[in-house]
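Our collaborator T.R. sent over the components below with a one-line note: 'Predict the complex.' Nothing else. No constraints on interfaces, no templates requested, no preferences about which chain binds where. So this is a plain run: every listed entity goes in together, and whatever single assembly comes back becomes the starting point for the next discussion.
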Amino acid sequence: MIKVGIMGATGYTGLELIKILKRHRQVTLSWLTSENSAGQTLADVFACPWDDPLITSETAPLDDVDVVFLALPHGASIPAVKRAYEAGVKVIDLSADFRLHDAAVYEKWYKTTHTAPELLPIAVYGLPELHRSRIRETRLIAGPGCYPTSVILGLYPLLRHGLMAEPYAIADSKSGVSGAGRKATLGNSFVEVNDNFSPYNIGHVHRHVPEMEQELSAVSGAPFTITFTPHLLPINQGILSTLYVRLKDPLTTDDLNSLYREVWTGEPFMHVLPPGKLATLRHVVNTNRVTFSTTAIDQRGNAIIVVTLDNLIKGASGAAVQCMNIICDVDETEGLLF
Amino acid sequence: MIKVGIMGATGYTGLELIKILKRHRQVTLSWLTSENSAGQTLADVFACPWDDPLITSETAPLDDVDVVFLALPHGASIPAVKRAYEAGVKVIDLSADFRLHDAAVYEKWYKTTHTAPELLPIAVYGLPELHRSRIRETRLIAGPGCYPTSVILGLYPLLRHGLMAEPYAIADSKSGVSGAGRKATLGNSFVEVNDNFSPYNIGHVHRHVPEMEQELSAVSGAPFTITFTPHLLPINQGILSTLYVRLKDPLTTDDLNSLYREVWTGEPFMHVLPPGKLATLRHVVNTNRVTFSTTAIDQRGNAIIVVTLDNLIKGASGAAVQCMNIICDVDETEGLLF
Amino acid sequence: MIKVGIMGATGYTGLELIKILKRHRQVTLSWLTSENSAGQTLADVFACPWDDPLITSETAPLDDVDVVFLALPHGASIPAVKRAYEAGVKVIDLSADFRLHDAAVYEKWYKTTHTAPELLPIAVYGLPELHRSRIRETRLIAGPGCYPTSVILGLYPLLRHGLMAEPYAIADSKSGVSGAGRKATLGNSFVEVNDNFSPYNIGHVHRHVPEMEQELSAVSGAPFTITFTPHLLPINQGILSTLYVRLKDPLTTDDLNSLYREVWTGEPFMHVLPPGKLATLRHVVNTNRVTFSTTAIDQRGNAIIVVTLDNLIKGASGAAVQCMNIICDVDETEGLLF
Amino acid sequence: MIKVGIMGATGYTGLELIKILKRHRQVTLSWLTSENSAGQTLADVFACPWDDPLITSETAPLDDVDVVFLALPHGASIPAVKRAYEAGVKVIDLSADFRLHDAAVYEKWYKTTHTAPELLPIAVYGLPELHRSRIRETRLIAGPGCYPTSVILGLYPLLRHGLMAEPYAIADSKSGVSGAGRKATLGNSFVEVNDNFSPYNIGHVHRHVPEMEQELSAVSGAPFTITFTPHLLPINQGILSTLYVRLKDPLTTDDLNSLYREVWTGEPFMHVLPPGKLATLRHVVNTNRVTFSTTAIDQRGNAIIVVTLDNLIKGASGAAVQCMNIICDVDETEGLLF
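Returned assembly:
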């Protein structure tokens, strides 16, 4: 059995991790931390039947676990990752702190100094569909952001085959509210969000932009730019990204579809819908799947790729467990087929 | 024109007041206060097109208005009401501070000392359907709570005619989230409320209980007891109360229906549905109406009265403007037919 | 492996059965029927990744399975159950057709002749918490209605101990929309239901009433009457029943709580919350659990029991699989802990 | 007083028309038709307090009204418009039947023969912000589609000033469910739509495309092409269109903002938000307003225009009444400021 500790167990990604790991047949949950709720149990915090105690990170015995997941706010994750990594355990970080290879880029977008830049070259961006072999060989995973997972996986087949007319795409994304985390803010209160729909941080200013551009540039071998427009949906879970691309040469919808199917062959969680069917949130919520649909529009090469995933699962905790399975040499889908 | 000031303009009842008063053909809005947002405009705070400035209560010129509405938290309302009343203006308070005639009852339920008990005998409970003539003659209105409005109006026809078997009823109430006010709490955040439904403060502990019992006891001429079970609905606005009563002698649904129609004859906002139709939130949201349906169940006299209203309108700001119309000798429905 | 066939696979309970059985480690799905969608696959009908073919009931090989689940409309289920039962397989019917022991009661409430009354004495009401030993010995299960499951389990501890002052209770129930089945009606269209909340079939007229009264009368050994008020919630899944009872002698909330804990000891899916915590839909949606909270109100013995469950799982497909596990001598929780 | 008849009063646009016209101080509702509900009253069909009778179109006296609104399905509207126009009344059609100037284009997109092509040159596209003077002089208005209203108004300021780099834009639009009309379909049932989000008819296939391209081509004086991606939001009312444009020369967000303010100067319902504020549905639902926000992205001229409106009001019934006000020489905002 793999012994697991979770730091930051009382956020939405923490809860999702716990749900997955309680299903996982080769994992024992050793401890859960929560700075705000230490001393209580999970059942005190969530409407769930689990009496697992919550402790402070300070008192969490790192030497008692094989793997530590960190579901902490960005910034707060850096020292915790460092401590865990130095204690010799496998570390899977769900924050943004180790996703960007370049500390200067991190500091520009997150307005804070990176205090463990020496770990950046060791961290692997936890997208198994792109980096499976490198994930297998590290002890430090940087779990990707939820929006970037949808955008990167959605454009990857086109970029790998060099089909785009320009190193540029538009991502019009829509996310459920849990993406903003479990916290009390007026903007995320029920009355403000319900029956409403609103864009935020649009254009080229959302913090997920550099992460997308880093990965897409690496695939295409040249600087890639994204126009990124996130919107807030009045639902709990799920991301749908509508990607607008221009291809060098027009392809038919059928050709695009075949391309995506071929690129994702063998990937257990990539699900390309047949031509004529469009990806929806219903395809993915409460699963670790990513669903794709491809639509050619005109003779000028305009096309639309729709990508959906569950922001808390494949966009966060499911991807993290998938990485753990790879690192720990367990079947990659264990705990993730539900 | 009636010159109006609003204290506490940036809560949900404040916004609803503003919307109604901007439609009102005999009102000018003189000033709006907000301690948190003073210096900004309404359009900075709400997704609305109005540029009215927000000022602090301290700087609000009481001598410049005929009527002041107070949409402040309970407790905070007492000194503000006192100041306004002493300045000689007409005062309509939407808080709970002047609803209970007995300061000791107030202090027991609200756990705070009442610092203006001398005003309690002057305050009239602002339910025109019960107290229209007394409302006409006061300068201080205590706007009723949203739940009590539904329960009191729902039981009033039976009590006025002395038809109940015992001085007791069960009120199973369901309310939209705006009833909790405009503030950031984890419990009212979108993800917690959406797709959920939950009871709270059930039995005989919610602060609206003494208000219901005070008014129902007054109508029936003897102590009346309520079992009150509020639940939180995943919607913004609206209250539905399902009232369970036992009648002395069984009545048919038709007889109950006739009784309610007769009692509410001439009331512009009371709407009794025909037998067989049941009251829903759709009947009332965004209106000042109260909708009733009556259902006899069995030969033992069990019956169900369903009552619906919009908690922000007839349950708060609409009722407040209705009282203002009465006090200011304006058509009672002005601004309220929309 | 248990070979399973499902008749009526394309309703919401059908889909939920499929999801559970695909997780079940001792089940093989042999065939799925759908009169409307025969010739298509599951993935054509639902946003899911499963390509299982859909066939007509006519062509479904009954001799190829050990267990048949029927998720058909009431009335339509009778001949299908009869055929399957006579073919010698184990039959689990999710319709209302075999729940009532008395064909005359069935005919009165369902306005249709019961064409297989000879099977009624064989059918066992599929509530393991009440009838586990009888379930083990039959080949024909009548899966309980969703509302009755909540009301019967909620009152059972009080009735078994003879604590109620009268053989009568009020059940104020609220259900998500999936309870109405998967079909196109104006009343269940999004715009009509969203932001709305409405009672329907209230008092003593809903078809689930005789089922509740049959089971509650059996437990209490005397005719038991229910006032039942269902309401439609703007959510997909979940039932919350607020039960109003009067006890012979008042009990404290703690005593009530201990009683419920004791009665449900050893039951894997019954979950009694500690005093002070109230049952919500969040506790149960997407699980096979039933959550209870108990609240004493006053010295006259008034008390409130709140019960929640997922109408599609413990209220239908989860309970059906639980019964299958019992009949097939498999661990009762297999496939149901998710 | 203007005497008004409404054909097709029991759809969502019909109800919205009625609500607006009952507020309108210079209108009398003469009759309402509904083929399905003739013989009933409005209160039988909707949760409203109005007892207006519903009659068949056959029996509706055209000589008794000054204005007829038609809220009928496309195709069905053609003969009704023809009859009303020939009877000499003012006709405001909310269907798609008279929006396209070219009968051949209509027939290509709507797959049906246009049986009154002689009226097409008379019909004016009912967008006062573009065609006010022509609206004033006709007796036949073709009310614009909801999506086209958002896209045309959103691009108009750029096109009028010749600022776009190419005659092409991407419109990523999201609409509430009422846009699909009031009818029973599985796809629009609550359970299917709630907690879901889905694209449909994407690329260049939705029937609103030719209408957008007709109007945008007319403004720009050359063929204009749209990539149009509608999505279904789990809300009742509201459209948000995110428009992606490339400008000839990059402008700042401030410059774009000034341009939009200047172009819409004097328009009572066009509302340009200040730089930094983004348009949301909350700005417009239950109003006749259109809200715009403008965001420059980069030095290559990429920019995003966000436009919101209420699909039932400015996207249908509000615009229709606005046109009526113009034709009937009434204040253009009468009935529309609420």
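Summary for T.R.: The longest strand of chain C covers residues 168-175.
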